[in-house]
Write a structure and sequence with these properties.
The chain is mainly beta. The chain has one domain: Thrombin, subunit H (Beta Barrel), CATH 2.40.10.220. The protein contains one helix and six strands.
Length: 124
């Protein structure tokens, strides 16, 4: 399978809080829409996006705002949900890899950032 990502992934395990929205993505006005709060763990990240494990159920093509800490720096990123689903029902190698890790959450959220992340966190 050909790699479609512009930027290489970096494995990590970062706690993340996020806000997402429900509704029709073509009619959503995030300035007036009420957001829903969620939390999870970023399992890998790149300059262009992140793979999150969470218990939140989200919809594709919806905006999402992420807040997480990397070292002493808090990062806030905006993006769009490009894939989501239950980990146990996803046959992909990536989802199965995270299903084996001890992380709370039964769903995954793949996010594409609107603006590239300048400094990608490195797992220590």
């Amino acid at each position: 399978m050909t790699e479609k990502r512009k930027f290489p992934r970096q494995t990590c395990k970062l706690q993340v809080n996020f806000e997402f929205y429900e509704g029709d993505p073509d009619e959503l006005d995030i300035k007036s829409a009420e957001s829903i709060k969620g939390k999870g763990v970023i399992m890998d990240i790149s300059k262009g996006g992140a793979f999150i494990v969470s218990n939140s159920r989200v919809s594709i093509n919806m905006p999402i705002n992420l807040v997480f800490s990397s070292g002493d720096v808090e990062k806030e990123l905006e993006g769009i949900i490009i894939r989501t689903g239950l980990i146990e029902n996803n046959p992909s190698e990536v989802a199965q890899q995270y299903a084996k890790k001890k992380v709370k959450g039964d769903a995954y959220i793949a996010v594409k950032f609107f603006m590239p992340l300048k400094d990608v966190p490195v797992e220590k």
